[in-house]
Amino acid sequence: MLEKPERGIVDETIGPNQPGRVKAMSSYWPAELYQPDGQKVHLHRGKPVFVVAIDNITVLVVPM
To answer: Cα–Cα distance between 24 and 7 in angstroms, integer?
Structure first.
């Protein structure tokens, strides 16, 4: 987990079991939903998100 979440914008739709891509921290990253409570959310292009963790080169995001 990151100490302080970073802001990002969805570039490719992200959903449950559907990785996508976000622009955050001045770069594009593969992204997945961080779902500790099993939420069934789809994040579409342009949606603001918080990056809460980084796993290898994939960021884990939650909706803002």
So the answer is: 6
